[in-house]
Write a structure and sequence with these properties.
about 40% helix; eight-stranded parallel sheet; 10 helices; alpha/beta; TIM Barrel
């Protein structure tokens, strides 16, 4: 069962670069108390390319243990290696994830036939799968025909789109918080899960502020300002340099909330 909105959950690190599993657990429990409907674990916002296999597995275990049955849990499993992506999708299925999210293969730049065959192999795992279309990260912008072909596979259930293109005939999740759709896999929901569900347009100022940084540098800076987790990221990412911009946007949002409460 898919949720209407998901948080693309960050992976918290300590200042010496280790995964902080306790903070990760705390974030999931806080989100559940805030009514979060679904989690995407190990996606772009979770800095998946920098995680070891053991770290990913432990994060998945914690997410399943805390959230399964209370919210939808999706694992990010896509890589530029088809065999590895298949293994990760099989792991997600074995561990009990509700679905897996698979990005279009990046770096090696396959053509649309290669991308299709990549998803054919993943589809054989028998795991509900979300196609993650993000040309800015992968260097590949799929045609509508290619998306339709991939979505025709048995276990493809939705598209997460970060391109801004209009995709018809499929369940589509916005992967860009500045593009508000009925369904979303959101970055800003890490910090404002309730407000994102109730009034996403009220968050567009702070969305613009964190987007001055590469994701997840901006959202982690915001979360540190809010006392939710450290701003630490793993190289080659570095901590946000536009902290003042993000802090001003946060203060403005809080001021607007205070004024609305007084009305």
């Amino acid at each position: 069962m898919l949720a209407r909105t998901y948080v693309a959950l960050v992976t918290p690190f300590t200042q010496d670069g280790e995964v902080c599993y306790q903070t990760f657990s705390n974030l999931i429990q806080w989100h559940l108390s805030e009514g979060t409907e679904g989690f995407v674990i190990g996606g772009t916002t979770g800095e998946a390319p920098t995680l070891t296999g053991g770290e990913r597995t432990r994060l998945f275990e914690i997410a399943i243990d805390l959230a399964k049955g209370k919210a939808s849990v999706v694992f990010g499993v896509g890589t530029y290696c088809t065999r590895e992506s298949v293994l990760q999708a099989a792991q997600a299925k074995k561990m009990g994830a509700d679905a897996c999210m698979v990005i279009v293969p990046y770096y090696n730049l396959p053509n649309e036939e290669g991308v299709f065959r990549h998803f054919v192999e993943i589809d054989k795992v028998g795991m509900p799968t979300i196609l993650y279309h993000h040309p800015g990260r992968t260097g590949i912008r799929l045609s509508h025909a290619a998306i339709d072909r991939i979505m025709g596979l048995e276990n493809l259930i939705a598209v997460k789109d970060c391109s801004g293109m209009e995709i018809n005939g499929h369940a589509v999740y916005s992967g860009v918080d500045s593009i508000v759709l009925e369904r979303s896999i959101s970055v800003i929901a890490n910090a404002f899960p309730k407000l994102w569900r109730e009034d996403p347009h009220a968050l567009q100022g702070i969305v613009k502020a964190i987007d001055t940084e590469v994701n997840p540098q901006g959202i982690k800076c915001l979360m540190e300002l809010m006392g939710l987790c450290s701003a630490a990221v793993r190289l080659p990412l570095v901590e946000a340099s536009k902290r003042e911009v993000i802090e001003r946007a946060l203060n403005l949002l809080r001021s607007e909330a205070d004024q609305a409460a007084r009305l």
